[in-house]
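A quick aside before the break. I want you to see a complete sequence-to-structure record at least once, exactly as it would be stored in a machine-readable document. Don't worry about memorizing anything.
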Amino acid sequence: MTIPGVREYTVRRARTSDVPAIRTLIEPLVAERILLGKERVVFYEAVQEFRVAETPDGTLIGCGALHVMWEDLGEVRTLAVARDWLGAGVGYTILERLEADARELGLTRLFCLTFEVGFFTRNGYGEIGEGVIDPEVYSEMVRSPDEGVAEFLDLARVKPNTLGNSRMLKQL
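That is the input. The structure line, written in tokens, reads:
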């Protein structure tokens, strides 16, 4: 049964063939400096981290990725929804799926760097400051070349790229 006014979509694991559509979906957000741009190769390297939302006709309308940062810590990355699908629950559904994936992996905390504070707050995330990890773990994580880890650690080298964003965390 189809309910009038309800738009249908499904969320599934991304495939390599989705990478061009993912890039097209996030291009407007990169242009607005809401998301950081990435090279195509980075999306292929991380395709297994992505979930995508698509309509019954196969149109990609949303995406998001879960990146493992530490034994108990992951990051929600590149969460985006097509403009004409905003407010339809697509972002929530993708986030819910990424959180389920995180639990399945044994993660207990999820980090995000975002301008969308209201959305993440409504979904149980809170803004964080310093001291969310112990010094021993910090000394290990600081060795990572991953920009997301640098953002989580609030390292000075990423500050020009992240000005205005909020660092948020959720306990799963």
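Two observations worth writing down. The longest helix spans residues 90-105. The domain at 10-171 is CATH 3.40.630.30 (Aminopeptidase). We'll return to this after the break.
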